[in-house]
Amino acid sequence: MGIAVNAQKFLEVNTLDDLNSVNLDQKILILGGGSNILFGGDFNGLVLKINILGKQIVKEDDHHVWIKFGAGENWHESVLYAVENNYGGIENMSLIPGTVGAAPIQNIGAYGVELKDVFHQVDGIMLDDLQRFSLNTEACNFGYRDSIFKNELKSKIIITHVTLRLTKQHQINATYGAISDVLKSKNIIEPTIKDISDAVIEIRQSKLPDPKELGNAGSFFKNPTISNPHFRELKMAYPECPGYPQPNDRTKVPAGWLIEQCGWKGKRVGETGAHAKQALVLVNYGNATGQEILNLSKQIQDSVYVKFGIKIEREVTLL
Fold first, then answer.
1. Catalytic (active-site) positions
2. Are 4 and 40 in contact (CB under 8 A)?
3. Residues 224, 313: one domain?
4. Over the stretch 283-294, which tens digit does the pLDDT of each residue have?
5. Do residues 215 and 311 make contact, with C-beta atoms less than 8 angstroms apart?
């Protein structure tokens, strides 16, 4: 978010040996890339920046390859590595900021694909006794931008490695509207995983500001799911309202559309505001504080609820 924040203590963890001399009986923040965090002020504790690197093929057959990534590996660079080696499954998640180790926590996803679709195993250590653990997909309790790491295991573990099961014989996912439009514009009829990755990168760069130039955390809110009867009422009042069918008689409604309908797209409030090209992205124009951005997010949530009767939740972690 481009906000200057101080930690009381800060340690970069390159190997697990770096933890041997650290007092872990204190307030601790496990930091990946820091791309999905909003600080309200300074952090009065120890920040552990996870920099564990490495890529290792641990298993493969005719159809799949299992790759073990260090938690500190950059996510987008890992996607490019997979695409360059013709390993599929994560190309739709190109250009998502952050690290591989943070990906399971959020169950990151984009353009019709989520991490759980390719996830195999996470390895890590418990903070209370430094005992190692491994969890498979079922044990991680993945949900929409959710996992066991945001609930029962929150602040209790360090993820050290993530193993993904990628494809050698690909199932191309180009059904998400924006991707198919880009492919059509380039006359690509039978896209490769690189074509998909390139299309996603083009879409994201056209809509999302570069955090190096304009402070932001990407999508600030989750896309809400509402009951089908509620969606039908919404559709009657707003025929242009988009919706995506979900299990259990529910429909996902784009939070960006809801926010835009409330007049926030491109609106600036002091040093913060909703981005002009994507209302879902809250930005720091240079001197905003964490509290100012938080206040803006509350105003947006309230206005969406008043207009549509829908509660939108923040996707960004607040500290």
1. 145, 219, 315
2. no
3. yes
4. 999 889 999 999
5. no
